[in-house]
Amino acid sequence: xxxxxxxxxDPAPDAARSRLWRGLVRPTRTQLIVAVLLAVVGxxxxxxVLSNTVDDTYAGLREQDLIxxxxxxxxxxxxxxxxxxxxxxxxxxxxxxxxxxxxxxEAARNEADTLSIIAGTVAVTxxxxxxxxxxxxxxxxxxxxxxxxQALRSAGAEAMQVNGSVRVVASTSFxxxxxxxxxxxxxxxxxxxxxxxxxxxxxxxxxxFPNGPQDQFAEDGVAELTYDExxxxxxxxxxxxxxxxxxxxQGDE
Length: 253
Fold this sequence. Notes:
CATH topology of one domain: Alpha-Beta Plaits
Radius of gyration: 54 Å
Shape: rod-shaped
Order of helices and strands: HHHEHEEEEEEHHE
Helix content: 40-55%
CATH superfamily of one domain: Protein of unknown function DUF881
Number of strands: 8
CATH class of one domain: Alpha Beta
Structural class: alpha+beta
């Protein structure tokens, strides 16, 4: 019997793959044209899809409708601008009111400080003079002492204390007593040391003018008044104010 023949490979698939490979590597003119047409068709399809997704909210509106919408938008914008202007004016008013309030508070603080110094209720510091009165042949009398205080006040004295313990204010009383002078309810004895805050030169001039305090204390060789000008002087004695018994501030009418 004859032997069966071995099956042979079919050359058709190999030929097809070869043609496909040649088509990819070296496309023919027809294939290029087909590829371009497909690309154009795909681009047109994508463009159509995108155009269908565009917002056409105002596309079907009439001209008058569009005008009305624009007018509404203009009115809304104007109202918003008016509100912004109102808020800015309110802000400016508040800032101005705050500044005025701060200025008033600052003025009130300054006035309170000034009144406290005048009333002698706070310790103070500043330039001034230190006066020393020493007895020589007799006791210091209260009359030249009061004249000295008045002369110093007229020369611009802003604060004054005697012997470091009594603050001299408008209501301070002076009286002759045995062994010294009664000043503001306290008996003080020589030597008297009077600290005064103010312009040093003006205060010194208030003591040495003819027939002034220095001459009055020196009459009959009773006492000697000397003073030193100081660039810094502390007055720590304070006056305890006495509440009025009958006087009261007037109310607003």
